[in-house]
TrEMBL record:
Xref: SUPFAM superfamilies: Glyceraldehyde-3-phosphate dehydrogenase-like, C-terminal domain, NAD(P)-binding Rossmann-fold domains
All copies of domain Gfo/Idh/MocA-like oxidoreductase N-terminal, residue ranges: 2-118
Pfam family, one: GFO_IDH_MocA_C3
Residue span(s) of domain GFO/IDH/MocA-like oxidoreductase: 155-216
Name of the protein this chain belongs to: Gfo/Idh/MocA family oxidoreductase
Domain of life: Bacteria
Lineage: Bacteria, Pseudomonadati, Bacteroidota, Flavobacteriia, Flavobacteriales
Amino acid sequence: MLKIGVLGAGHLGKIHLRLLNQSEKYELVGFYDPLASNAEKVAQEFGYRVFKSIDALIAEVDVVDIVTPTLSHYECAVQAIKAGRHIFLEKPISNTVTEAEHIIALAKEYGVKGQVGHVERFNPAFMAVKNKINNPMFIETHRLAEFNPRGTDVPVVLDLMIHDIDAILSVVQSKVKEIHATGTAVISDSPDIANARIEFENGCVANITSSRISMKNMRKARFFQKDAYISVDYLDKICEVVKMKNAPEVPGDFDLILQNAEGVKKQIYYDNPEVASNNAILDELETFADAINNNTTPIVTLEDGTEALRIAHQIIDCFNK
C-alpha cells in the first residue's frame, strides 16, 4: 500500500483527505497546510495527522498529493520530485507552461510518475461514451457556474474552461491550428465569462463557453461526427448517443427515417451506454496508484496537463489582442 500525504487542506484538499483515508490503495499518512489555524482545525475535526512542514511530510510518504493554490504547484512539485516522490497535481498543473515543462523534465530525471487532476476524464458519463467518440468534427461545450469567490484569483479559463479543453484534447487526435477567443471581467479582476473557438489541423472545430457568474450550474458537451451525435452531461452524469444506419427496406411503424434530397434513407437510432456509478476523484487517485504499482502510464499525464495549460494560455492571450 502506497503511503501518501496531502499538501493543502482547503475545500478540495479536505475531499482528497477523506477519500484517501477510505482508499484501499493508499495509506494516508497526513497533511500539511501553511495556515496553522486551519491545519489544527482540520486535524482536530477529522483526526488526520498534521505535519509542521512540507519537508517533514515528504520524508514519510511515497506519493505527494498537491491540492494547494495553483501559484504554489510548481514549488511543491519540484520539492517532492527532488525527494524522489511521485506527484498528483490538481489542475491546472502549474501557473505557467514553462513551469509545467520543467516539472515534466524533473519527473523524467528523477524517475517518478505524475498525474494531473483533470477529474472530468473520470466522470462516468464521459467514460461511458469516450470509446464511441471517433473523429468528431464539431464540438460544443458549456460550463456555467453560479458565482463563488473561491477560484476568482485566476481567469475563468484556468478555473473552469480548462476541464473542457483537456477532455477535448483527449478525443481529438490532431494538433491545434488556430484559436479565437473573447473574455469579459464582470465581477472579478480577471475574465468571468469566456468563449473560445479552437480549430484543429484535421478540420475539427471546438466551440467552448465558460462562465462563473451564471444563474444556474451547467456542464454539458456535444460531439458531432460523421455517424453520430453524442452528448454528455457532466453534472447530472447522463449521456446520449444518436446514430444513423442505412434504413431497412420495410421500416417498422416506430422507426425514425430521414431521407435526403438524393433519396437516400437513413434510420436514426439510440445507442445509449450504461453509466456506471463512481466517485471520479477517488477513481483518479486510485488509477494513479495502479500506474505506480504496475509501472504504467497514468491516465492524465503531466504532458496532458501541460498541453491543456498551453491551450488555456493561448486563449487568455487572445483576450488582450
